[in-house]
Amino acid sequence: MDLDGVLEVVAAVLILVGSALALVAAIGLFRMPDAYSRIHVATKPATLAVVCTVGAAVLRVPGLTGITKLLLAVALQFWTAPVASHMLGRAAQNAGLEPAEPWVIDESPESEPEATDT
Question: Which of 25, 45, 53, 107 could bridge to 18 as Cys pair (CB 3.0-4.6 Å)?
C-alpha cells in the first residue's frame, strides 16, 4: 500500500470518528435532562467531530490554500464554541432554569451574598 492509500484510509477513519461523535452529540441533546447538560453535550463532541472531519479533509485536499482555510475553520470553531456555550449557560441561569442535580459550587456573581457594612 502506497502513501496515498494510507492517507485515504486514515481520512476515512477520521470521517467515521467525526460522524460518530456528531451522532453522539445529537443523541445526547435528546437524552440529557436539563439545559446545562445539553449545552455540554452539544459543545464538546461536536467540536471534536469538526476537528476529525477537517483533519480528514486536510489529508485529502491538495494545496496550501485549501489546508489554510480548513485550519482557519478549526481555529474559529475552537474560539467560538466555548464562548457560545458559556453564553447559553449564562442565559439559562439568568432565565432561572434549574439543573437536574443541585450544583456543588455556584460561582456566579448572582449567587454571592451581599456584602454588609458592620
Answer: 53
